[in-house]
Structure formats: structure tokens, C-alpha cells
Write a structure and sequence with these properties.
The protein has 202 residues and is α/β, with parallel strands linked by helices. It contains eight helices and five strands, in the order βαβααβααβααβα.
Length: 202
């Protein structure tokens, strides 16, 4: 039988440790590691535009459409080819981030964003979404040394809405979401991720 690849998406707020944990899981699974926005050459241009503090005049709908464009290119040129070849794919952000950031955070209609995401991905959902749940204060400490990008510089209220949105998404779809406590050492969190995924990738 041909091995069927699985798509695992890491989700969470700024400074939640997604990138680190995605990298560790991809290594342990011998999976393709990728990220959004910016996981393709075209997507890199989208990422620079969306996260640039100079893009302050960008409207919420424009932001959502740019994220969808990035994802359409990402799925078509990175994710689908890898899955078709039987590889697991681990991505740092996917559809859940659009629903949490542009939906719950920006206040755009979540159901309309679901339709937009479904069109952009050709209906490709993540097989498992791993939500790394980290308190806002802890995420601030992790980001303290870095110059904030346009998203990171948003208000505390915005980031709280995003966090609440992620928790709501996970609570509404336990079949596709697992919630992992992101507080602790890198190794401790990695062990929690592996335990949460046990039996879900077979």
C-alpha cells in the first residue's frame, strides 16, 4: 500500500513556540517542514507586505485575501506534492490562524473566512491542528528581545481575542484539534506534543 501523508498544523499566538515545536516534530517524523505566511517564493513577498509595520493602512479584508493567496500557493506547490508523495507535512500556521487572527482578532465573519480558506486550499484541511496554549505574559517575555512586526505590535485586546478564538476553534472540533500546554522547557513541550498526537497519525 502507498503511504498516505498527513498534514499537521501548529497553531497559537505570537511567542507560543510553534516554530520550534514544528521543527522538532518534523525531524522526529521525517516530515516536510514548512510555514505560513511565506513558505514559497511568492509567499515570501506576501509575508513581507503583511508583517511590515509600514503596512499600517492595510484593511482587514485585504489582509485576509493576502493570507488566502499565500495559502493557495503554499498548498499547490509545497503541501499537496509532499502529501501525494506519501510524506507527512508539518506546517507552522495554517487555516486556523486565518480564522483566529482575521476572524476573531479582526472581527471578520468566520464562516465567510472558512469558505475563503476552503477555496484557497481546494478543501485541504489539516489532519491535526496542534494548539500551543501559552499565557499572554509568557509570550511577551519570549518576544521581548525582538523588534515586533505588524502583528506582534497589535494591542493586548487583539491578542486576547486571537487566543480566545484558537481555544474556541479547538473546543468546537476535538476530532481535528489537540491543545498542548506550551509553558515549560522545549523538551517538556515536545513530549506533550508527541503524547497528544499518539494514535492520530496512523
Amino acid at each position: 500500500m502507498t503511504r498516505v501523508g498527513r498534514l499537521i498544523a501548529f497553531e497559537g499566538g505570537e511567542g507560543s513556540g510553534k516554530s520550534t515545536q514544528a521543527r522538532l516534530l518534523a525531524k522526529s517524523l521525517d516530515a516536510v517542514l514548512t510555514f505560513e505566511p511565506g513558505g514559497t517564493p511568492i509567499g515570501a513577498s506576501v509575508r513581507a507586505l503583511v508583517l511590515d509595520p509600514a503596512s499600517a493602512a492595510m484593511t482587514d479584508r485585504t489582509e485576509a485575501l493576502l493570507m488566502a493567496a499565500d495559502r493557495a500557493q503554499h498548498v499547490a506547490t509545497v503541501i499537496e506534492p509532499a502529501l501525494a508523495a506519501g510524506r507527512h507535512v508539518v506546517t507552522d500556521r495554517y487555516v486556523g490562524s486565518t480564522l483566529a487572527y482575521q476572524g476573531y482578532g479582526r472581527g471578520l465573519d468566520v464562516d465567510a473566512l472558512r469558505l475563503l480558506c476552503a477555496w484557497a486550499t481546494g478543501g485541504r484541511d489539516a489532519d491535526v491542528n496542534v494548539l500551543l496554549d501559552v499565557p499572554y505574559e509568557a509570550s511577551l517575555e519570549r518576544l521581548a528581545a525582538a523588534r515586533p512586526d505588524r502583528m506582534e505590535a497589535e494591542s493586548r485586546d487583539f491578542h486576547q481575542r486571537v487566543a480566545d478564538g484558537f481555544r474556541s476553534l479547538a473546543g468546537d472540533d476535538a476530532a481535528r484539534w489537540v491543545v498542548v500546554d506550551g509553558v515549560g522547557s522545549v523538551d517538556e513541550v515536545a513530549q506533550r506534543v508527541l503524547a497528544a498526537l499518539d494514535g492520530r497519525l496512523s
